[in-house]
Amino acid sequence: MVDSLHKAEKMGACCWIVDPLTLIWNELLDSFQQKLGYIPIDKWQDVRQLWNSDYIRYFMNCGMNCLALGRLGNDFEEREETLKNGETKMKLVKVGTKFKAGGGESFGYEPHLVLELSLERKSRKVNGQEREARAAWSTAPMC
Description:
Elements: H1 2-10, E1 15-18, H2 21-33, H3 44-61, E2 65-68, E3 71-82, E4 88-100, E5 115-126, E6 129-141
Parallel strand pairs: 1-2
Antiparallel strand pairs: 3-4, 5-6
């Protein structure tokens, strides 16, 4: 990724897009687990440092507009719930969505802008008659 960013800058590009960023994250993980088939717990700090300091920092600070495309993940919080018998228990509740790409669960930094695209099907009435639902794209800024 860093080589590609350098080449694009040298060519005078004003924008660089990676889709999906998760592929680069997976390649990084593959390079660390080649010998053993897994990544030892004492190597995870090295993986995260390489990802955050070498890849993501350059991505964020280079002279181009860089865009990372990823997937949408659910954001959960633990909430206390009171049962009918008066007891309380903790449960996970979906509170929204977040950007998920690379770095395991996140990009490594909060994105400056996240757009959520969704396909909605809305039925319509024409001359009083119900018509088949049409698909339409909608966007919702998340930050």
